[in-house]
Amino acid sequence: MSDLEKFEKLIEGKIPLVCMLAPSFVAEFDYPDIIWKLQALGFDKVVELTFGAKMTNIYYHKIIKEDKTKTWIASPCPTLVQLIRNKYPHLIDNLIPVHSPMGCMALICKKFYPNHKYVFVGPCLTKKVEASEIGNVELALTFRELNEIINARNIRNGKKKKKTFEKFYNDYTKIYPLAGGLSDTLHYKKILKKREILVEDGIDKITQILDEMKGPKYKNYLFLDFLSCKGGCIGGPGMDATRTIDEKTERILKYREFARRDEKDLGRRGKIIHVDDIDFSRKL
Length: 284
Ligand code: SF4
What we know:
The protein contains eleven helices and seven strands. The chain is of the alpha/beta class. The protein has one domain.
């Protein structure tokens, strides 16, 4: 069964669905238009991954702080995880054993919406692999697939009953899909120096660095913030938008400013105390 057929089955089913929208969504879709469309499609709740990303960061911070004897490698990019598993198995222990924002948000949704099923929608093809590995996410769709569904159902607009996401957290992790977005939002100053962090995007450059990791060249770095797609997740292969990386970056930054300015006071449940009973660690 294709993922589109799986989606049709889920949306027609009796169990309500949560749509977990990747933070790069605004590089592809207009906001809040996309929320209305997702509601019109039949999603009961629409959440963004910002609170999940925050929990990823908090766990990263703790792990890096506790062990500075090795070079840690960020693990939210499943293409990078697969690359290391297949080509650099000696580096598996360097991958930070923490869920990605998608994995963390699925655990958060499980707590807040225990009677729902969770569908991730993002710019990434390999999130489908991660979703099937971690188990909580019923289905991972690409933005391109969502566009196909919206067009096939001729959805122009929703009922406009809600203008925004279910509120969990609404702030800085919105820049996560940009290259370096993770380390920029890690609040690393008390645990790492800037020169100990290496940010890189694009599979060719990353492969070149990983090839040289056994030598002395990169030994002074304590954290590698790598994303496999050029430009980060906004360059993901599951997007339709023909915008340039610069245009997509601008849309992400504008959305963050809009949310900070105009949505700051919307009710939020995204406090750490609300999720301190959840274990966000992941075996890699
Ligand atoms: S960088 Fe590309 S492959 Fe990696 S998580 Fe983002 S979209 Fe997926």
